[in-house]
Design brief:
It is a single chain. The protein has about 180 residues and is mostly helical. The chain has a domain of about 110 residues. It is about 75% helix and about 0% strand. The two termini are about 25 Å apart. The model has no long low-confidence stretch (mean pLDDT about 90). Keywords: Membrane, Transmembrane, Transmembrane helix.
Length: about 180
């Protein structure tokens, strides 16, 4: 055994399972986690792209601490946290291989290094949300407020289709390991 890190040694000396031992041999749970985490990462990236594109289009309109800009930044913070956390977990699940303990250990280390940053993005979004609540809620209570939620349905459908593909891929990987 030529593993250099404690994590690599633990992976190499542990059971040669197709997924981390914490899944206790439940393949359906591995597939569920792999699908959800992959979808979370991809959906987060899609939302980040959408919000950054919108911010660029409206950079002259939404100046200073405009409610739309605050709402967009909150979305960016939450989406960034979800993307980082889900992406790191998906990486460790997709990359799990006890026969290549060093690579698996690197994925596990990356996950632990990314976790605090993901939490900081989420906490930043939470803090900005709480700070902006009084002003944004005042703006939202002004009449008339036409809220056309369903105009974004095509985007949501595309995201759900990507989610379905993530689950199909995860089921395929878990069942063929």
């Amino acid at each position: 055994m030529n593993e250099t890190s404690l994590a690599a040694q633990a992976v190499a000396s542990g059971p040669g399972t197709v997924a981390p031992p914490s899944f206790d041999g439940h393949g359906w749970l591995v597939a569920l986690n792999m699908g959800v985490m992959t979808f979370g990462c991809v959906a987060g990236l899609m939302v980040i792209g959408m919000l950054l594109t919108d911010a660029r289009k409206r950079r002259r309109q939404d100046v200073g601490w405009a409610p739309a800009r605050i709402f967009r930044v909150i979305g960016l913070l939450f989406a960034s946290g979800i993307t980082l956390r889900c992406g790191a977990e998906a990486l460790s699940l997709w990359g799990w291989n006890p026969r290549e303990a060093d690579a698996t250990a690197r994925f596990l280390l990356i996950k632990r290094l990314v976790d605090p940053f993901a939490a900081c993005f989420g906490l930043g979004g939470l803090g900005l949300y709480v700070m902006s609540m009084p002003g944004v809620f005042t703006q939202l209570r002004k009449e008339p407020l036409p809220l056309r939620m369903w105009q974004a349905w095509p985007t949501v459908k595309r995201m759900l289709a990507v989610g379905g593909l993530c689950f199909v891929a995860a089921i395929g990987v878990v069942s063929t390991r």
